[in-house]
Amino acid sequence: ALHAGFKEVEQELPGAEDLDGAARALMRLQDVYALSVKGMANGVFQRAGASRPPLYSPGRRVSLSADDCFHVGKVAYDMGDYYHSIAWLEEAVGLFRLSYGSWNPEDRSSLEDALDHLAFSYFMAGNVSHALSLSREFLHYDPSNRRVARNVAKYEKLLEMGTSARGCHGPPPHSCPPSRTLLGPLSPQPAPEHLPHLVCSYETNGSPYLLLQPAKKETVQIQPYVALYHDFISDAEAETIKGLAGPWLQRSVVASGEKQQKAEYRISKSAWLKDTADPVVRALEQRIAAVTGLDLRPPYAEYLQVVNYGLGGHYEPHFDHATSRKSPLYRMKSGNRIATVMIYLSAVEAGGSTAFIYANFSVPVVKNAALFWWNLRRNGDGDGDTLHAGCPVLAGDKWVANKWIHEHGQEFRRPCSADPRD
């Protein structure tokens, strides 16, 4: 009965894939926010080599164990990413040294394991002398290990020859590092006082729906045109939408040629809601139609997509509109995505901003607000300035709802300009 009960509960528990995903998320946060590994291990989100205040100070600090740090380093090592494996295995080795000889029921690895992987990581990074000293330390604890003894001899020979040719055998696997694409820090943004066209206003957009309660609009950027509508949704409506989507959440996919598939550059879970799912969804769609002035009737818009980003959840730079006629977006036969409405359903403790890369600005998460932008120019061409990314969530839980509106049906609502370049 106990075994059967455990099997039932086990389905809801994180598995090996979730654990490895969390390790990769920590490395992603380390890169994007330039965080100190030692600080992260101590539960502090501090920029590496900086004396400034931490990016985020949690109310309750949770430290990582030596075993935790070893696992993150091992995930990097298995990917051939020795840049990250060295940083995390160094931290693991330091923590294992402090507690060497004392038994911890949670430890699945040891000082010897960490030294073994760290030595080979340094060797693959070209630092043979440090690989040699770490391998000698390993033999101090385990003198009978023939593989490491052969590596020591090889390292000594390489140093004598003055070369760093690779020919040793580390713990498997030990392939070369893959290329890495990172969302780096943005350049400094212009101060608001130097941007006189950015204003706040109450908007009715000529809609009777908004006469008694106008939309609270903040113009965030002129090119590309981006607006933030504050208090667009209530707390109760946001909770209802999250509750409706929760049971249907699946790992998010991206368009790849003519297919859709999972990708490391988009880490989130999503679900789709029809307007018939609940009166709250129907009311929200009416509000979007009123604010944008666009036609959302099928097939002119996609269903409401609800997305959840957890630890390190992110979406690397991308366009919402299709850049190829072979994209699955054209299966709706309603043209390309002309506009995006993204509603923030939750607050985020740290991270999670929407960054427009080429336009060089970002919009932080504002709970219950809706972000709007045009993906296409008036001539139907994609607007390159809308390249954007969902920055990794540093702390907390990020929920958004996306509404993608297509160009067909909008011919008289957003007509072409007399200037074909517009």
From TrEMBL:
In the record, the note on similarity to other proteins reads: Belongs to the P4HA family.
Extract the Pfam families matched here: 2OG-FeII_Oxy_3, P4Ha_N, TPR_P4H
Tell me the lineage of the source organism: Eukaryota, Metazoa, Chordata, Craniata, Vertebrata
Cross-referenced PANTHER family? PROLYL 4-HYDROXYLASE ALPHA SUBUNIT, PROLYL 4-HYDROXYLASE SUBUNIT ALPHA-3
What is this protein's record name?
Answer: Prolyl 4-hydroxylase subunit alpha-3
Q: What reaction gets catalysed by this protein?
A: L-prolyl-[collagen] + 2-oxoglutarate + O2 = trans-4-hydroxy-L-prolyl-[collagen] + succinate + CO2
Residues in domain Fe2OG dioxygenase? Answer: 300-407
Gene that specifies this protein: P4ha3
Q: Which UniProt keywords apply?
A: Dioxygenase, Endoplasmic reticulum, Glycoprotein, Iron, Metal-binding, Oxidoreductase, Signal, TPR repeat, Vitamin C
Enumerate the SUPFAM superfamilies for this protein: TPR-like
What would you give as a GO molecular function for this chain, any one?
Answer: L-ascorbic acid binding
Q: What class of enzyme is it?
A: oxidoreductase
- Which GO terms of the cellular component aspect does the record hold? endoplasmic reticulum lumen
